[in-house]
Amino acid sequence: MSTAPRSIRRGARGGPSRLRLPARLRLTLACLSLCLAMAICGTAARAATGTDSPPGVANGAPGAVEPPHAEVNATSEAVARSVADSVVQTLADSIAARGGQAQDTRQLVLLLHSYEQGMGRVREITDTVERMLAPMTNNIALRVENLDSKRVRSPEYLDAFAAVLALKYAGRTPALILASDDDALDFLAVRHATLFPGVPVLFCGVNHYHDSLKAAIPPLSGVLSTFSPRETVQAMLELHPGTRHVYLVNDHTETGRAVARDARRQLADLPGGVEVHEFPPLPFDDLLSRLATLPQDAAVLLGVYFEDSAGYATTFEDMGERIAGAARVPVHCLVDFNLRGAVVGGKVSGASMQAEAMSRMALRALSGTRVEDMPTQAEGVNRFLYRAPSLERWAISERRLPEGSTVVDRPFSLYRAYRTHLNVLALFMVSLASTIAVLVYMMRRRAASERQLRRLRNLLANTLDSMPSVIVGVSPEGRVTHWNRHAAAATGLDAGEAVGHSLGQVFPRLDRLKPLVFEALEDGQIRDGQRLLHPEGDMVRYEDVTVFPLVANGAQGAVIRVDDVTERERIREMMIQTEKMLTVGGLAAGMAHEINNPLGGILQAVQNMRRRVEAGRPGNEAAAREAGLTLAQVRGYLERREILRMLDDIAASGARAAHIVTNMLDFSRRADGSFAEQDLHRLIENTLELAANDYDLKKLYDFRTLRIVRQYAPMLPEVPCLSTEVEQVLLNLFKNAAQALAAVPPADGAPPTLTIRTERHHDLVAVTVSDNGPGMTPEVRARVFDPFYTTKPPGEGTGLGLSVSYFLITHNHGGSFALHSEPGKGAHFTFTLPLRQR
Fold first, then answer.
1. CA atoms of 184 and 208, how far apart (whole Å)
2. Which helix (H) or strand (E) holds 801?
3. What was the pLDDT predicted at 464?
4. In the 8-state DSSP scheme, what is residue 247?
5. What pTM value is reported for the model?
């Protein structure tokens, strides 16, 4: 229990106000605390002259064992200094409170160390916490207190230290307490309820954690100080494959025994028959002698060694360095402060690593997360660290280290230290040399380039004049910049008269192309597919227009190319009509005897048969009576035998045949050139009906033997198109697929299949016609759309089907036509139709 005055304990539980205790009472308590500290110092000094031994070394942190009198003197001075500092701080707080200073709104965090601030471990924890919490940035007031239990830990001292804390934090309770190492946490376990009731506590570096601590400090969590002997030994065996014996080195203090027990448990079943050995309690010199005689197939695992069996102690760092120096075999360690001298490394536990993990938990707690909701962290803190000189000594490549390892203490390298500067300098020198070489080369080529430029200008002018197209260059403002010979012939104006003038003035019929010019300049894309109709006497000439965006020498513009395609258009129309007539001729050969001749007789016969059994006709009644039946009995027999239904089927088949003939006649009619909204799926079905009547008995080719797979996109909008031209394209694709499948059936034995798929892509509708036939070679694919190219024997194909289809889709409808085919994998033709025509 704490011996702090009752009034002080009440103040510690009070609110954050510094004015809760009267100034006079605060001064009185400060004087009493100073007197108490002096009494403690005197008691300690008297005890030193007696038979009492000096306090033991606390577990888990480095320190030095001093002679008894020196330790007592240091203890007395430390206690007096700590209490005096506390009194001064208390007096300052009282004066500040009376002076009416503004209240500090920062979150107060108390960092309580077990040992003095001068220890390397303590300094490392303090620096890490300050770096992680960033008090200035996160509005945190960080206060550091040191229990200094390595030098003095008597009950009187602990009570006095508690009284000092009660005085210092009477007016302002911390929002969070951070405790490092076991002694600080044990101190809080006894006095937390009195000094800081309800204040959450986070810890790090604790070896002897037990559940009773949570009962003493309800809002408690933190980072346990654990060791990783198994991971370290596994890495050791990988780095030193010949190792068959592992020697554990630990002192026999409480912490050393705990580390040894944990190591024995983790190393109980090492692979490959590796044996684990431990040294008995020995004087330090004897231990070094034993280490110097270990066999070559051994390795040493250094745990915690601070004090030998005879009581000799120095520091953890010194002990570890001397142990590694004495051994003639690799020495790996479990704690980062032993990573020095000849020690190789390992998965080590370190003060900064634990402090980082505790600081991350502290930031969460200060942000509102409850400490009791944070589980105690026992894994994931330790890291693999190795020393570069030791790796070089044992010929260990860094590539063999465990993943995520860090190598420290690398020897100084001029290149490594100034690598960025050296690389930049080398790059600069190379760039400078390259620049000089390029400048020399450019100077030598400049004269030749100027001569070549003059020749190129002349060549460009001659090229433009030699082209059979009208070439006109325009600026973004619509003024003429280029004018070739054909443009002059078309307008009667030479280049000197046209350049610099508005396009509408010198070439009126091209003036409506300005929107295309602006579009091409805006997105840098070529605009083509524009068709101009140019009346010339009694005939109309067709002109194709292409607009090319042009950027040269920083000046933007466009080039308009006009091509007279009147003759080509006439030839294509003749080809289209010829192909249609060839197609209709092929269909008519198969339909002549199957539909046209018997169609009228079938429909008339069906009609007469139904009339002969209708009621109300005298002739029907008389014929039935002559047969000894009534007309009702005759109809009943016909209905029971489903003869009347059969007559209906015959009539339906006749109607279907009539529909086929109608489709064929519609298909053969010449297109009028006007676009109309069409149901694409209906066009496909009409074309399938036409294709179903195309067969050749000599070649055993029949379209109706194909399996048709329809993959229609739902809710497909109507498409503006010329229905007869789209049907022509579909019929060409259907016939080609059927003929290919009839010539070479699928190799895998699958039924010949024709797949038709429709899709919508933004403003386009795509139709894909696929088959599982023999496919095409790259040579055939390259020429499949060429006019008059065919793979069929002479007399069986014109080679115009796909060429005409490509023209109808790309030119007449502004769509695209693509083919994907590989030998043995069928053919897939895809054409697109825009949903909005220009």
1. 12
2. helix 801-807
3. 77
4. E
5. 0.43
- pLDDT at residue 329, as a whole number: 95
Regions of the chain where pLDDT drops below 70: 1-103, 529, 537-539, 551-555, 570, 573-597, 655-656, 658-673, 694-701, 787-788, 794-799, 838
Q: What is the pLDDT of residue 8?
A: 32
Nearest to 514 by CA among 555, 471, 479: 479
pLDDT of the residue at 577: 60
323: CB partners within 8 A, 6+ apart: 249, 287, 288, 291, 300, 302, 305, 331
> Which tokens go with 72?
């007592």
Q: What is the dihedral of CA 805, 810, 813, 814, to 10 degrees?
A: 170
DSSP type of residue 200: -
- Mapped onto helix, strand or coil, the DSSP state of residue 756 is strand
Which residue has 């007309």 as its token pair?
A: 631
Residue with tokens 């070094």: 288
What does DSSP assign to residue 310?
T
- CB-count burial class (<10 Å; 0-12, 13-18, 19+) for 186: buried
Please give the Cα distance from 79 to 45 (Å, whole number): 12
Neighbour tally for 419: CB within 10 Å: 11
Q: What is the pLDDT of residue 795?
A: 56
* Residue 119: closest CA among 303, 284, 316, 324: 316
| 742-747-753 Cα angle (round to 5) | 55
The secondary structure of 97-149 as a DSSP string is HHTTPPPP-SEEEEEEESS-TTSHHHHHHHHHHHHHH-HHHHTEEEEEEE--T
Q: What is the pLDDT of residue 633?
A: 85
pLDDT value, residue 586: 57
Residues ≥6 apart with Cβ < 8 Å to 202: 176, 177, 178, 179, 220, 221, 222, 358, 361, 362, 365, 371
Tokens linked to 381: 């803190």
Rounded to an integer, what distance in angstroms lies between the CA atom of residue 476 and that of residue 551? Answer: 11
Non-local (6+) Cβ contacts of 711 within 8 A are: 755, 756, 757, 758
φ and ψ of 544, to 5 deg: -95, 135
How far is the C-alpha of 184 from the C-alpha of 207, rounded, in Å? 12
Residue 680 has a pLDDT of: 93
Tokens of 599: 């169609």
H helix or E strand, kind and range, residue 796: none
DSSP result, 552-573? ETTEEEEEEEEEE-HHHHHHHH
Residue that the structure tokens 């030791």 belong to: 390
Percent of the chain scoring above 70 in pLDDT? 79
